[in-house]
UniProtKB/TrEMBL annotation:
It is found in: Cell membrane. This is Phosphate transport system permease protein PstA. GO terms for cellular component: plasma membrane. GO terms for molecular function: phosphate transmembrane transporter activity. Pfam families: BPD_transp_1. The chain crosses the membrane at residues 20-49, 69-99, 111-138, 144-161, 193-214, 264-286. The lineage of its organism: Bacteria, Bacillati, Actinomycetota, Actinomycetes, Micrococcales. Belongs to the binding-protein-dependent transport system permease family. CysTW subfamily.
Length: 294
């Protein structure tokens, strides 16, 4: 066989392989879209019926049938998630700073290993941990919003650590060295140079961490419980959240049953919208404050 014929055969084989892989990837992408589109369409179709004013401005207090809303669950989700963010972001950020700027040797390896383990723990384990910790302090049967916030913080911390660590490592060493050459202490270099440079990526990671935990049901069912009334105090009594609201409406159907199902679908749709909004905000932050856009 001539050299030209060999090259032609090789070129055809490469083109065939390229087209085959392209078709395979496209089919896999379309196949992955089927359940996503089906899920979204189902939730929208069933949830939009109760997406009314009453759903957003009333709770389930004294409601046994139709009517009622999820205002108490929205407030609970907001307060619990906010408290979890306040707990997890400083801890996660300081841990990532230690691993990138100070961590050397066995301790840094142990912390990295523990963060990797925490990333993969089931959410129910985080709920059991938070519940057990507060039981030791306050006694059995404790159900409070702050306990739910601690359980969500346990899930958020490894996500914040990993995302912040990657962003801090992307900061060029030349910036650090230039600051050190001017006699700036390391802590001030981190505070004034490293963190502002990586802040867009860190903020994006925090938003994604919030989106990851805001739909958790199992840990909040154990730690915060559920209620039909408004509760603005994280440190007293049970507190409802949107994921638990969906569960309770579906699991404890009354008469008429369709009213409970409609409220569950509406709350599920609201959760999806919140998660989509958080992801969109994270992308906008990353795009606006990325170094390439400046």
């Amino acid at each position: 066989m001539s050299l030209t014929g060999s090259l032609t055969s090789t070129t055809r084989r490469r083109k065939f392989t390229d087209r085959f892989v392209t078709v395979l990837v496209t089919c896999a992408f379309l196949l992955a879209l089927v359940p996503l589109i089906s899920l979204t369409a189902t939730v929208v179709a069933n949830g939009v019926a109760r997406f009314d004013v009453e759903f957003f401005n009333s709770s389930m207090r004294n409601i046994t049938g139709e009517g009622g809303g999820a205002l108490h669950a929205m407030i609970g989700t907001l307060l619990i998630t906010l408290a979890a963010t306040i707990i997890s972001v400083p801890l996660g950020l300081m841990t990532s700073i230690y691993l990138v700027e100070y961590g050397r040797g066995r301790l840094a390896q142990i912390i990295t290993f523990l963060v990797d383990v925490m990333t993969g723990i089931p959410s129910i384990v985080a709920g059991l941990f938070a519940y057990a910790a507060f039981v030791l302090i306050l006694g059995p049967g404790v159900r409070m919003g702050i306990v739910g916030a601690v359980s969500l913080a346990v899930l958020m911390i490894p996500v914040v650590v990993r995302s912040s660590e990657e962003m801090l490592r992307l900061v060029p060493d030349e910036l650090r060295e230039a600051s050190y050459a001017l006699g700036v202490p390391k802590w001030r270099t981190i505070l004034k140079i490293v963190l502002p440079t990586a802040m867009a990526g860190i903020t994006t990671g925090v938003m994604l961490a919030i989106a990851r935990v805001i739909g958790e049901t199992a840990p909040l069912l154990i730690t915060a419980g559920f209620t039909a009334s408004m509760n603005y105090n994280l440190f007293a009594d049970r507190m409802q959240s949107l994921p638990v609201y969906v569960y309770t409406q579906f699991a404890n159907q009354g008469n008429p049953a369709f009213a409970f199902i409609e409220r569950a679908w509406a709350a599920a749709l609201l959760l999806i919208i919140i998660v989509m909004a958080l992801n969109l905000i994270a992308r906008l932050i990353a795009k606006k404050f990325s170094p390439s856009s400046r």
